[in-house]
Amino acid sequence: MTSPVSSQVRVIVSGGVQHGVMVRRARGEGGGPGRAGVRGARRPEVRLPPLDPYRDGGLEPDGDYDGLEFREEDLSGQDGGGARFMDCALRGCALDETRLPHARILDSVLTGLRGVGTDLAESTLRDVELVDARLGGVQLHGAVLERVLVRGGKIDYLNLRKARLRDVVFEGCVLVEPDFGGARLERVEFVDCVLKGADLSGVTLSDVDLRKAAELDIARGVDRLAGAVISPAQLLDLAPVLAAEMGVRVEAAE
């Protein structure tokens, strides 16, 4: 019989699952004692000033964009490497093959973005809301994300290898084969979102809350779950993979 819905477990892995998994049942709900050991993510609080419409027609490397609204702009194939976006709103823009490596996106709202192959490698996103995006193959390897909310939409093949995520919330979105290889996640929450084929190889987790994920499918790196918190149902779903990592054979008695 499974545990009641209100109960929670915390999985603490010391030195990888090959050294054992400890399951601790938490007490209480909400802000009670059961949550004392899990620090929640701080969400961004973006308050945009009155914005001017963007009329320049094209991005420029190392460009400086402050207090602008990009509405339904086709930025496909453009090069804005090293650009800074401050107090901006990008709404319904196309970002196919747009180059934004080393960009800084600060105190901004990105809504309804669409595109394939957007390059945001080694960029910085701080106090950003990304809402209802439809993206594929986004390159965010080596990026820094701090106080970022990703809400709704679908992102395929998100590359966050060796990125640093702090105070990041994925909410109500679908992530297909996200790659967190070698990344560092601190105070990251997955709420009502779907993770399919996630790669956690070499990842470092601290206060990562997976309990409210609608679907949790880990393709690689289940041995790196130290620092993550999961639900009883997720523990049961992951049991075969955890057993395989620990070298445990599970067979019915004859």
UniProtKB/TrEMBL annotation:
Show the segment(s) annotated as Disordered. 22-63
Annotated coiled-coil segments of the chain: none
For this protein, the record's InterPro entries field holds: 5peptide_repeat, Pentapeptide-BTB/POZ_domain
Pfam families, alphabetized? Pentapeptide (PF00805), Pentapeptide_4 (PF13599)
PANTHER family attached here? BTB_POZ DOMAIN-CONTAINING PROTEIN KCTD9
| Full protein name | Pentapeptide repeat protein
Specify the species.
Streptomyces curacoi
